[in-house]
Amino acid sequence: MDKSPDAFRTISEVADDLDLPQHVLRFWETRFLQIKPMKRGGGRRYYRPEDVDLLKGIRHLLYDHGYTIKGVQKLLKTNGNKFVVAVGHGDLASVEALAAAQEATSPEPRVANPDDDQIVGRAKAPISRRFFNFVSGDEDTPEISIGKSSVGKEDRALLQEALYDLLECKRLLDQVR
């Protein structure tokens, strides 16, 4: 029998739902102060539905978008829980609305710093595209010259996809270890 959507979840149920080990959820509690499951006698954790939604958003940013823990902490600090939850649900309209509201209330425009983990309000490009600052559909990106040969856009895109596949394989192997 399935639980009601409003029911509290145990750590094992949440871990199964997110396809994560339980120790990762406990670790995230130490890194993200916004994750506050209710604890009963004996330290047993019970996660509210909003806790689970936040965890889904954090997982999505860390594993699917390649953010660092520090980067997700910055997103939570600047944009709040609702933004991360919307990202986790894939609700792009809410993400864009929240980002626009953030920009509208900001006294000065945010300038991207190359040392930052992300531009606040926008998810990073997939890992392979970050390395070459490549964004698909960018028509005025010049060709890269290497010695006497040059790498065209099509070849560069193929190389980046191969790199992405290799990095994904590495991530999967690291999970198994």
UniProtKB/TrEMBL annotation:
InterPro entries: DNA-bd_dom_put_sf (IPR009061), MerR-type_HTH_dom (IPR000551), MerR_fam (IPR047057)
GO MF annotations, alphabetized: DNA binding; DNA-binding transcription factor activity
A Pfam family annotated for this UniProt entry: MerR_1
HTH merR-type domain: residues covered: 10-78
Source organism superkingdom: Bacteria
Keyword field contains Repressor: no
Presence of keyword Amino-acid biosynthesis: no
SUPFAM superfamilies the UniProt entry points to: Putative DNA-binding domain
Keyword set, alphabetical order: DNA-binding
Name the UniProt record assigns to this protein: MerR family transcriptional regulator
Lineage: Bacteria, Pseudomonadati, Pseudomonadota, Alphaproteobacteria, Hyphomicrobiales
